Amino acid sequence: MRPLTEEETRVMFEKIAKYIGENLQLLVDRPDGTYCFRLHNDRVYYVSEKILKLAANISGDKLVSLGTCFGKFTKTHKFRLHITALDYLAPYAKYKVWIKPGAEQSFLYGNHVLKSGLGRITENTSQYQGVVVYSMADIPLHPKGGKVSLNTH
Amino acid sequence: MEGQNVEELLAKAERDEAEKLQRITVHKELELEFDLGNLLALDRNPPTGLRHAGPTQEAELRALARDNTQLLINQLWQLPTERVEEALVARLPEPTTRLPREKPVPRPRPLTRWQQFARLKGIRPKKKTNLVWDEVSGQWRRRWGYQRARDDTKEWLIEVPGNADPMEDQFAKRIQAKKERVAKNELNRLRNLARAHKIQLPSATGMHPTGHQSKEELGRAMQVARVSTASVGRFQERLPKEKAPRGSGKKRKFQPLFGDFAAEKKSQLEMLRVMNSKKPQMDVTRATNKQMREEDQEEAAKRRKMSQKGKRKGGRQGPGSKRKGGPPSQGGKRKGGLGGKMNSAPPALGGRRKGGQHHGGKRRK
Questions:
Q1: Is B261 on the interface with A (CB under 8 A)?
Q2: Are the C-beta atoms of A101 and A113 separated by less than 8 Å?
Q3: Lowest mean pLDDT among B66-70, B274-278, B298-302, B325-329
Q4: What is the pLDDT, as a whole number, of residue A63?
Q5: Distance CA A2, CA A78 (A)
Q6: How many CB pairs under 8 A join A and B?
Q7: Structural domains in chain A plus CATH codes
Q8: Which of A1, A2, A63 is the mutation pick for testing B, counting most B CBs within 10 A?
Q9: What residue spans carry the Basic and acidic residues bias annotation (chain B) (predicted)?
Q10: What is the pTM assigned to this prediction?
Q11: What's residue B316's pLDDT?
Q12: CB of B297 within 8 Å of any CB in chain A?
């Protein structure tokens, strides 16, 4: 377990900033505690200082996970966000897409969302923008792999 | 009325006296054992009142402590006293209780090389006197140490031996020899220490004196030997079945796990600010490389012009030699890439290219 290097932090921030933009500094600098990013076995964990101090007592090969896993660095040092980060990204998302109940299941099983399935969308969303998908009940969703591509703009 | 008051007062005084006495004397079934040297009082009376299960009886414990302390103080008052700077002080006897060791017993150290040798040969230390008679100064001097009896570095007249170089400084020679002896002694002392504490000595070649080395040590020594060539091992072929060593690169250094959280946060916020600022940040490396490239091109153009002029004018030496020397100003600019200070003459004379390669560390990244 170790802190991220400058390079790794930059790559990770760039990826996360695609979804939440400047709100990322609210994740870094929180009023209710010191939270930090730590790397363990190529995975990035977002963990509070208290939990980190406890986790330091566990040897590296026995430690499975700590805090929340945000994502992992691939072999070629690219950052891949994981579904476990959704809880932290959803409240700060800049561009949101709401899908109708009918299209929800289809999305969750990995299919693309068609324009007919689109319920609401934040205005000024540009093409190829990173968005967070919600159901009509404002629950953030994550498929096992699907793209949201807007053909309107 | 007054008589009654007086009587009452007297009775009260008597009662107070009795109470005080009672306080001083304490009744115990078994006498306490005292070790006044350690200010210790040992009470072997069974604590009947404290055996009740339940909350600890503070009052009873306090009373017990008070009684025992009173007895100890009584004993102290019986010791012989003396006056030390206006204070009455009791002289304590020698402590009788033997306290246990604070630290564990020290383990036996390994013998030094001399001790091993002496043991082997059966050499026992000869008893020597500390003082020796010194003829030169006419007094008893130490055998060794400060102002010793026969200090050969302190002689004022040294005869040059027959086979020695007459120009050699004999005094300096003796001082040098002494320094070497001291250094050798120090080295041996440290070696003995290292052997005692089982610390590994840094070895220059990586080879062990006795030849019993582990696989990793041999591998490391081999790697060091391979890299100790003029070209730092670049043109060193490997043996047919030799494998490249693992983990011989520079070890990466990471920030500590619990570093300064505030500093980490600050650097991350700074990075975010830069990312969000939407202005392209100047990449210093690329800017300097660009500058240097432009200068190179300018110089190349100038040289071409000079050589053409020279050819036309029949190969005059003037412009040619100037080329070798090189304009020092450009050598200087090369360093900072941003019009920094001028270098002194030697780097420019050494060859423009060479100077550039040494100073411009970040060139052409």
A1: yes
A2: no
A3: B325-329
A4: 95
A5: 18
A6: 50
A7: 2-89 (3.10.450.220), 95-140 (2.30.130.10)
A8: A2
A9: 235-245
A10: 0.44
A11: 52
A12: no
